[in-house]
Amino acid sequence: MLTIPTKGRYSIRILARIAAFQDNQKNEKNRVLRKKDISIEENISEDYAEQILMRLKTAGFIESYRGPSGGFLLAKPANTISILEVLEAMDGNINLAPCTTDSCKQQTTCGAKKVWLETQQAIINILKNTTIADIASEIKKINSELYDYAI
């Protein structure tokens, strides 16, 4: 089964959560999101959230601010951060099968190599063309549907 590693998936969720939060804040000073709030909203332990946040900061996706009103915010616009860029920064290159790299001993005689390469390229194209802003938009849509009720 094909699976994107947990750290990569959580990184996407965290970045999208920060982006959605920033979009909802009118006051520039209140645009940082605390680690505790991220871990609660995303149902991730604070320790694991911190590990991911530090890697995202090192990779240049977020900035952090210390102190009582500190937290995290995106270092660049959400619509400029592709899902592919984040996954590769967190987990390395996406390789569907060994024959999509030079590590397969049967790559010159494998009849399935073309299928794996085409599938990998299709996945990469989707991830390259989807941004954190797209995911944040989905979060806001879901939240508005969850809390859109009348009394």
Task: Describe this protein's structure.
This protein has 151 residues and is mainly α. It has a domain at 6-93 and 131-146: Orthogonal Bundle (Arc Repressor Mutant, subunit A). 53% of the residues lie in helices and 5% in strands. The protein contains 6 helices and 2 strands; from the N terminus they run αααββααα. It has a two-stranded antiparallel sheet with strand order 1-2. The model has no long low-confidence stretch (mean pLDDT 87).
What's the quick description here?
This protein has 151 residues and is mainly alpha-helical. It contains six helices and two strands; from the N terminus they run αααββααα.
Shape: elongated
How would you write the strand order of the largest sheet? 1-2
The main pleated sheet reads as:
2 strands, antiparallel
- β-strand number: 2
Provide the CATH superfamily of the domain at 6-93 and 131-146: Winged helix-like DNA-binding domain superfamily/Winged helix DNA-binding domain
Terminal Cα span: 46 Å
CATH-scheme architecture of the domain at 6-93 and 131-146: Orthogonal Bundle
Helix count, per DSSP?
A: 6
As a percent range, the share of helical residues equals 40-55%
Order of helices and strands: HHHEEHHH
Question: What structural category arises from helix and sheet content?
Answer: mainly alpha
- The proportion of strand residues reads 5-15%
Mean pLDDT: 87
How large, in whole angstroms, is the Cα Rg? Answer: 18 Å
Oligomer: single chain
What is the CATH class designation of the domain at 6-93 and 131-146? Answer: Mainly Alpha
CATH topology of the domain at 6-93 and 131-146: Arc Repressor Mutant, subunit A
Contiguous runs where pLDDT drops below 50 for at least 5 residues? none
